[in-house]
Every structure is written in C-alpha cells, then in structure tokens.
Write a structure and sequence with these properties.
Layout (H helix, E strand, L loop, with lengths): L27 E6 L2 E8 L2 E7 L3 E7 L6 E9 L2 E4 L9 E9 L9 E9 L3 E4 L13 E4 L3 E4 L7 E9 L12 H14 L1 E8 L4 E12 L2 E11 L1
Parallel strand pairs: 4-10
Antiparallel strand pairs: 1-2, 2-3, 3-4, 5-15, 6-7, 7-12, 8-11, 8-13, 9-12, 13-14, 14-15
Length: 231
C-alpha cells in the first residue's frame, strides 16, 4: 500500500501540551462515533470538545464561524501521511495521522508577531523541532495548543491531525485498514478545521484572518486546497 509507515519517526513530530484536568462546566458525555466518545466543556469562555477513544484522547477548541465567501489561496502537497505505533494482534484500534506543512501567507509583510489557533477539528500545531520518537506510543493524550509570537510565518508551522480507527484481521497489512479508509477519516478532519491567524506588523497594523482546507481529490489527501474565508 502507498502508505508511509515510519511509525517511530513520522507520526509524532509534534510538541503537545498535556491536557489539564482543571476543566470546568462539563456539559455532555453521551455522543459516540465509531467507538470514540465525545464530550464538551467550557473554560474561560471557550468551548472545547474532548474525543476519547481506546488509544487516543484529543481535546480541541471550537468556534461558531459561518462564512459567506472564500478565496482560493492555492493548492499544496500534504507533508506526510503516517501511522503511529503499529497495531498488534488483539488490538481493537490504532492511530493514524497526517502532517500538513502550512505555506507562508505573509512573507511580503514586515511582521512583528503571528499567533495561530486551530478550531473545530482534532488538530494540533507543531514547529517540527522535537524528538520524533517521543510520541510514538500505543496511547496518546493530546491538547490542541496554539502557537504564539512567531516572528514570521516562514517558520516550519506544521498542522497534525489524528484519527483512531478499528483494526482488521489482516495480518498481511499489519492489522490496519485500507489506505482509503484512513484517508476518509483524516479527510473529514481536514474539511472541518478552521484556522485563525492574528498578524501584527512592525508599524502596529494588526489583521485577523481565517482559513479552511479541503482535499483536492475525494480519495486522497496528498494535495489540499487552502481557502481564506470571510463572514
């Protein structure tokens, strides 16, 4: 299969912030999708979704953002499609991920700082400067932290999305699903994410921009379109 299996090198190129136990206003715990339970809570005026599976727990913020217009910024190759720790006989689920290298959007401006947030989908942000083996584990607990005070957007901003999916009985494919099934789960994540960029110029000007992504092809996430969206 065309799948890139670098289980101890690829998946976990990501600095994750541990999910705090000091959450407030836990509001629901009764949604289940393919064995993944979801709950919601609110903290400091921000709503969070917690997805809890057998191997993966990921917490990410959500916003209500209804857009009426969008501008296609460009089409980009996805960075890496990879697996976590290979499943073993008897495992009920395993974790897959996709790493997206975000392109520079503000290289023509004199930037003093950029802050990036991801919403509405199980993503986290990474600058790639970590030990790739650190998070190649059987289980993961991920909090979708944002990135603050980047000096420019030409730094290696990486977006990593995760999905936990059932194993199979197919020993010849390491008990994993077909690539098309993995791509479907990760493609859904890509379609749902909203990114917020707060950009400050050296002259004091500040802009806030929102973006979304969409795979170019239905059965592949090798290429994505990036759109700038407006209310």
């Amino acid at each position: 299969m065309e799948y890139i299996k670098l289980s101890f090198i690829i998946l976990m190129m990501c600095m994750f912030t541990a999910c705090s136990n000091e959450h407030s206003e836990n509001t629901s715990t009764d949604t289940e999708y393919n064995g993944v339970n979801t709950s919601e809570y609110e903290s400091d005026g921000i709503k969070y979704v917690v997805c809890q599976g057998k191997k993966l727990k990921i917490t990410y913020p959500v916003i209500d953002y209804n857009y009426t217009d969008e501008e296609l910024i460009g089409t980009y190759d996805i960075g890496i499609l990879g697996a976590g720790k290979y499943p073993e006989d008897g495992d009920e689920t395993y974790i897959v991920s996709a790493v997206i290298e975000w392109p520079s959007m503000y290289g023509d401006r004199e930037i003093s700082s950029i802050s990036v947030n991801v919403y509405n989908s199980p993503f986290c942000i990474d600058n790639y400067n970590i030990d790739g083996i650190k998070y190649a584990k059987s289980t993961l607990d991920i909090f979708s932290a944002h990135k603050d005070n980047l000096s420019d957007d030409r730094q290696a901003i990486k977006l990593i999305t995760f999905a936990e999916i059932p194993t199979t009985k197919d020993i010849w494919n390491d008990y994993m699903q077909s690539e098309s099934e993995e791509v479907k789960r990760l493609g859904d994540n890509i379609n749902n994410v909203v990114l917020k960029f707060q950009v400050k110029d050296n002259d004091g000007k500040e802009t806030i921009d929102y973006y979304r992504m969409k795979p170019v092809y239905e059965y592949s996430i090798r290429k994505i379109n990036i759109y700038k969206i407006k209310e």
